[in-house]
Design brief:
single chain; 512 residues; alpha/beta; Rossmann fold; Glutamyl-tRNA Synthetase, domain 3; Ribosomal Protein L25, Chain P; 3 domains; seven-stranded mixed β-sheet; 14 helices; 28% helix; RNA-binding
Length: 512
RNA sequence: GCUCCCGUAGUCUAGUCCGGUCAAGGAUCGGGGCCUUUCGAGCCUCAGACGCGGGUUCGAAUCCCGCCGGGAGCACCA
């Protein structure tokens, strides 16, 4: 029967089908509208509990966006709860906690529209972690190890168990107490989970659960010297906080195994579902908190919200809308693919949102002065605030024979006829010649007679020879703009006004 | 090297679990055109993909095997 049908030509099959079941020929209408998130495994409306676990070493940046946007989006989708749990265990020397980062993280999340219910701190929960540790120690599932990190690494590689692994539980507990009492120095003892020294994944062999750090903690000072590692603290807190779903990057898959192992040995029943997403990278953008920190310290950047960084604060200052960031991130879904996207994709999303609101103005970067000969007497011209919305009104621009044009335009069009947009046609040169007033179909460039100093700050893009800022002249009305206005400098791009003073208007470049 | 994950247009993504309506959808980018006093927006249009090789099947992007390619982890960081 099937073979019979297959022998028919596609046209014949189609005709035959049309006579039997014409509705099957209708193409299903492709779904449009906002992208729907795939369902979360075992998610129950109203009962989903998610958590966000930022490490307070600096402000959140665009590279963290996938984690917080997805968690927030799912919390909203299922009308669940999203907890903000600062992952502020002691960290390491080269990745210290910054006291101001707590507020910087919250500020970023608030801007992004992430609605978290409660704020918790790992550093407040250390006694709970100790309790669980003691259960593990008492059952012999974990032990205190005095090997130094180098020995530990070599043993791991050689699948070799050290003497501590088999020591008595009593002895282990005495050593644990000695750790807490400060009888060991930094690096002299750790608590290790007893997994399997022959485990196929070398990284998994008797992983460290606690270590000693003598540094002061920004929130709890010197109250603790024995600090949990991330995996262990999450095994405790995910269970205790009733987290139903853990959404994390796939660089953290081994943490799933660790948490699961600990729950298994401790007989913990209620567990979250683990869901991962791939690594997100930006083309031409190297996100480095430590580098930006250095540059800020050296005064080359003005602060964590400097538009040349990629912090959420910097995005806000460049006129990027939170909704654009959200759409951008959600467009990747939950895929496990590691992706590298151009920042242009974010800009495309943002442009859709700001274009209708951004009024147009002239800004002439690196001005070159030009004197037009033969110009009829004229003092000002009019141009629309927004070409798509004439009702919004017009701007009056002072005009006359002495104008400024952009250096790039001057170089490109010197000796050629161009139209000074909304003004007149000239043959461009230092001594330019007036041609006519009427609108012609020739290249149009922006110009300014006298106006205000504009300082435009550009974002940071690696391997770009472009300068990170540019100065020039804006048309007179630019001086009347307000902080937070998002405008489009014609032929230059969208920018947000950040500061207005008599001396200059400072604007942060968003994108073209 | 070991462990795990992933391969759909330049880029991102839908489809893969449950094989047929997929002669593969969308977005973005690119080409062309229209419109527009911006290199913006809008409209129309074109181009562009199932990593490779076997197998199963009437039929494979979808199932199986092998290969190739990419990524992550392998810290007393998170």
């Amino acid at each position: 029967m099937v073979a019979e049908v297959n022998r028919l030509s596609p046209e014949a099959q189609r005709a035959e089908l049309a006579s039997i079941a014409p509705e099957l020929l209708e193409k299903p209408t492709p779904s449009t509208g906002p992208k729907e998130l795939p369902p979360l495994p075992k998610a129950v409306e109203g009962q989903v509990v998610l958590r966000l676990a930022p490490y307070p070493s600096g402000p959140l940046h665009i590279g963290n966006a996938r984690a917080f946007v997805l968690n927030d989006a799912y919390a909203k989708k299922y009308r669940g709860r999203l907890l903000l749990v600062f992952d502020d265990t002691i960290g390491s020397e080269d990745k210290p906690i910054l006291p101001e980062a707590y507020d910087q993280v919250k500020e970023g999340l608030d801007w992004a529209g992430v609605e978290y219910r409660e704020v918790l701190y790992k550093s407040d929960r250390i006694p709970l972690h100790y309790e669980w540790a003691e259960k593990l120690l008492a059952t012999g599932e974990a032990y205190v190890c005095e090997c130094d990190s180098e020995t530990l690494r070599k043993n791991r590689e050689a699948k070799h168990a050290c003497v501590h692994r088999t020591q008595d539980v009593d002895e282990t507990i005495a050593m644990w107490k000695a750790m807490l009492a400060g009888e060991y120095g930094e690096g002299e003892a750790v608590v290790r989970l007893k997994t399997d020294m022959a485990h196929p994944n070398p990284a998994f062999r008797d992983r460290v659960l606690f270590r000693i750090a003598e540094r002061d903690h920004p929130r709890v000072g010197d109250r603790y010297r024995v600090w949990p590692m991330l995996e262990f603290s999450w095994a405790v807190d995910d269970a205790l906080l009733g987290i139903t779903h853990v959404l994390r990057g796939k660089d953290l898959v081994m943490e799933d195994q660790m948490e699961t192992w600990i729950w298994d040995v401790l007989g913990i029943r209620a567990r979250p579902e683990f869901v991962h997403f791939g690594i997100l990278r930006f083309k031409d953008v190297e996100l480095s908190k430590s580098r930006y920190r250095r540059e800020i310290a050296a005064g080359r950047l003005t602060g964590i919200d400097d538009p040349r960084t990629w912090s959420l604060q910097s995005l806000r200052r460049r006129g990027i809308r939170p909704a654009a960031l959200r759409e951008f991130v959600l467009s990747f879904g939950l895929s496990l693919n590691d992706i590298e996207v151009p920042a242009e994709a974010l800009y495309a999303e943002n442009r859709k949102m700001i274009d209708k609101d951004a009024n147009r103005y002239f800004f002439v970067p690196d001005p070159v002065s030009v004197e037009i000969s033969g110009l009829p007497p004229i003092e000002r011209v009019k141009a629309p605030l927004h070409p798509d919305f004439p009702g919004r009104g017009v701007r009056e621009i002072a005009a006359g024979p002495k104008v400024h044009v952009a250096e790039d335009d001057f170089a490109k069009f010197r000796g050629k006829e161009v139209r000074l947009k909304d003004f007149c046609n000239v043959v461009l040169d230092k001594r330019a010649k007036f041609v006519s007033m009427e609108n012609k179909d020739i290249p149009k460039i922006q110009w300014v007679m006298h106006g205000v100093n504009v300082h435009l700050v550009l974002p940071d893009v690696t391997e770009s020879p472009e300068p990170r800022e540019v100065r020039g002249l804006g048309e007179p009305l630019v001086a009347a703009l307000k902080v937070d206005d998002v405008v489009q400098f014609e032929r230059v791009g969208f920018a947000r006004i950040d500061h207005v003073s008599k001396a200059e208007v400072r604007a942060y470049f968003g994108h073209r």
